[in-house]
Amino acid sequence: MHAWPASEVPALPGEGRDLRIHDTATGGLITLDPGPVARIYVCGITPYDATHLGHAATYNAFDLVQRVWLDTKRQVHYVQNVTDVDDPLLERAQRDGIDWVGLAEKETSLFREDMTALRMLPPQHYIGAVEAIPGIVPLVERLRDAGAAYELEGDVYFSVESDPHFGQVSHLDAAAMRLLSAERGGDPDRPGKKNPLDPMLWMAAREGEPSWDGASLGRGRPGWHIECVAIALDHLGMGFDVQGGGSDLAFPHHEMGASHAQVLTGEFPMAKAYVHAGMVALHGEKMSKSKGNLVFVSKLRYDGVDPAAIRLALLAHHYRADWEWTDQVLEDAVARLDTWRAAVSRPDGPSADALVEEIREALSNDLDAPTALAAVDRWAALQHAQGGTDEGAPGVVSRAVDALLGVAL
């Protein structure tokens, strides 16, 4: 599966800063020191109802992570998956009377278009669950053969008790885990499981549903968590720098994935930092596919909204915050974009050297984009109020905003 084209990232003078970021597993800020190649895995979409603003906010956060690393002259090895076979996708295709493969392809293509418009840097490896199945099957067999998985009526489950580190990503108690498991794709009440929290690794073929050859597992399809584990281990290995996604993935998805990988390899941890973006609401409720209260990037674009304004609307909120999309949020972003573009369109202006360092410092401090935006606002206000004599300043600001914030002025 191919990703989307990359926009050019301008090189900036001076030195970038190492990233301090909030790690869900430790509950605090940690400083990442990736070495010359930074490794990041971000969980991708299940391709239906793409791309809503909740998606966009999440991928914007991890785009900033890449940009901070690139500013330190590191290379970035970025991997993202597409869950292109899963119960919700199949249910949507059945509801609408369309082919599930066609639905997945259509929505994935739309997602690529939206990511391109928003200037999100693409992953080096963009892998669908279906194409990963040949690598998933041997991992499930290894877990089963090691006694870390068991069969139940043809399905194969992972035993969470096989990982001594289980629970160290989300730090939730058993009752909270059981509740979230039921809400987020698990089946804690299924009779016969060794532990209600045990997640499915391989689902035996169901009538009328797609299935693949699973060698000794029989025909079926993979569970949700093992899909990402197989892709991450194949392309990044253990101990990669950042495992990213929305805050609703901390449990069960990232918790279970970490346990799968740790049992498979005998190494700990799977990722050095588990980083989670907040949720976006509309009319007082979190945007969700089940509620249907979604605002789509493509709809905004088709209505003539500049993608740079959409991106500025996302950047105006700290990535870990839960926030609400309103007409005012978009209006403020459009006004900010107009102000910035007018400021950099002049032939000279106030010195921008300090501004570049302010943006760098803000983003290195847990991706504090709102503080970075406020710094640009101050420069733009000074430019409009009194101007300046530095002929290179508007160009420096344009390049810094592009390179570090992903906004083309």
UniProtKB/TrEMBL annotation:
Its cofactor is Zn(2+). Binds 1 zinc ion per subunit. A motif ('KMSKS' region) lies at residues 286-290. It catalyses: 1D-myo-inositol 2-amino-2-deoxy-alpha-D-glucopyranoside + L-cysteine + ATP = 1D-myo-inositol 2-(L-cysteinylamino)-2-deoxy-alpha-D-glucopyranoside + AMP + diphosphate + H(+). GO terms for biological process: cysteinyl-tRNA aminoacylation; mycothiol biosynthetic process. Residues 39-334 form the tRNA synthetases class I catalytic domain. One of its GO terms (molecular function) is zinc ion binding. Keywords: ATP-binding, Ligase, Metal-binding, Nucleotide-binding, Zinc. NCBIfam families: mycothiol_MshC. This is L-cysteine:1D-myo-inositol 2-amino-2-deoxy-alpha-D-glucopyranoside ligase.
